[in-house]
Amino acid sequence: MSAAPAEHPAGERPLLDLANRLMEQYPGHRVEIIGGQILVSPPADGSHAEALTDLMVPFLTVGLHGPESRVLQSVGIWLPDGREDYAVPDLSVVDADYKDHLVANNCYDPVSFRLVLEVTSSNYKTDLRTKVTAYANAKVPVYVIVDRRHNRLHVLTDPAADEYETHRVHAPGELVTLPESIGAKVTLDVAEVLRAAASGPKAE
Fold it and tell me: What is the pTM of this model?
């Protein structure tokens, strides 16, 4: 579902109003506005949820959910692409004071985000393309994609303009250490992450 960008008076946010009505109409769906377009994603399946739980463990183990940073699921990030744009990453590592950087609509300034992570579903192209541009423009330092369709783990770093200068793709059997700029040394076992994520139906 999408809506074209529209001109509107200062102070009015018709896309946000529509997005909020859609969230009320379709409980459990994820509604985002990226590039002036409303995106509606169906509720996540069980394997998607399992993968997120498994992925939180290495971040929690090294203490990233503590006094300096927090590990959160489904918290909104306000995007600089448009006056109403925001995304809702599956998982984020944010500064502990992120609540001081609330912008609007329960979304926070991207300056608070150290890492965002998405687990692909039927809308995998959004995670692999649209959100790459959005998160790079927002200067999120690290973007991780658990690609269930292609059985790969993507790690994107060094945002510049509308892309990441470094984009590494990892296969099962690899251990991936994320940049310590997120606040601690986190190593992901690609096979374990993908095994948890792949137990449900694959997107076509």
Answer: 0.89
